[in-house]
Design a protein that fits this description.
Layout lengths: L6 H23 L7 H14 L3 E2 L11 E5 L2 E3 L13 E10 L2 E10 L10 H22 L7 H12 L6 E2 L5 E3 L6 E5 L18 E9 L5 E3 L7 E3 L5 E11 L2 E4 L3
Antiparallel strand pairs: 1-4, 2-4, 3-11, 4-5, 6-9, 7-8, 7-9, 9-12, 10-11, 12-13
Helix pairs in contact: 1-2, 3-4
Length: 259
């Protein structure tokens, strides 16, 4: 069942989304050489509480952290460890805020850079192009998340941009989702088109969804890593990227809740 949010519920989610966006921006600014994944996790927890929210991810059964950290070949659900970031790492941070009964969800990926200017290698250039591709795909997916369209319009928009050049691939086993009273609600929001657009769910005003771009520099295949039951990585050990925003399907177009 797809839940349509009331005006009051939307206002709550907008406030929770604002908290999340501010926290994630601050967290990403601290993903620098010499800082550990666990330090970033603790920072996110502290900032969320200071702003009056709660960790959404800690409400997931069996998960005890505020963020998921996807470093280099980790795709999603990476458990924070003592790993210390170094220059050139590709780090995705996925975070959720629970505020007054509602969840919002958001993720961002960056290449780790020192505060000092250093030569940019060919690898760095390739990664920057890869990350720009994912951000562009996210923006395209959000742009078509409007009344009158279907979930398939979002899926196709994301897939077309990511796979246009033939170098990158969308992960097929991980998808976006509805978000609200639960962290994961209906409808499913794949970053790739399954069947015909006309056969996918309608986008109706009041629907809130987490649009995700989950993609790899290499092939689409993924595996579980570290035997922790959570961390999923690329099978070919290629770099992965993750971009996500919580979005409201509004009467006059999409509204980014985590902005």
């Amino acid at each position: 069942m797809i839940n349509i949010k009331t005006d009051k519920e939307i206002k709550i989610m907008m406030h929770g989304g604002k908290i999340l966006a501010e926290v994630l921006l601050a967290v990403m600014d601290n993903v620098i050489p010499g800082v550990s994944e666990l330090e970033i996790d603790a920072l996110a927890e502290r900032l969320i509480r200071e702003k009056g929210g709660e960790s959404g991810f800690k409400k997931v059964d069996g998960y005890s952290h505020t963020i998921c950290v996807s470093t280099n070949d980790v795709v999603v659900h990476g458990i924070p460890t003592n790993y210390i970031f170094k220059e050139g790492d590709v780090v995705g941070i996925d975070c959720g805020v629970y505020y007054e009964g509602f969840h919002t969800d958001m993720a961002e990926t960056r290449r780790v850079k020192s505060k000092y200017l250093s030569p940019i290698s060919k690898r760095d250039q390739d990664i920057d192009i890869f990350l720009k591709n994912g951000k562009k795909a996210l923006e395209a997916g959000i742009a078509v998340a409007k009344s009158g369209n279907k979930i398939g319009n979002i899926s196709k928009s994301i897939q077309d941009i990511v796979e246009k050049e033939g170098n990158y691939s969308i992960v097929r086993t991980l998808i976006g989702h509805g978000v609200g009273r639960e962290l994961h609600e209906e409808p499913e929001v794949p970053g790739f088109l399954i069947g015909k657009i006309s056969d996918t769910p309608n986008l109706i005003p009041g629907i809130t969804i987490a649009i995700e771009v989950i993609y790899n520099m290499g092939k689409k295949d993924v595996i579980y890593k570290n035997k922790d039951g959570w961390s999923i990585s690329t099978k070919d050990k290629s770099i992965s990227g993750l971009f996500e925003r919580s979005v409201l399907v509004g009467e006059n177009g999409p509204i980014i809740l985590t902005k």
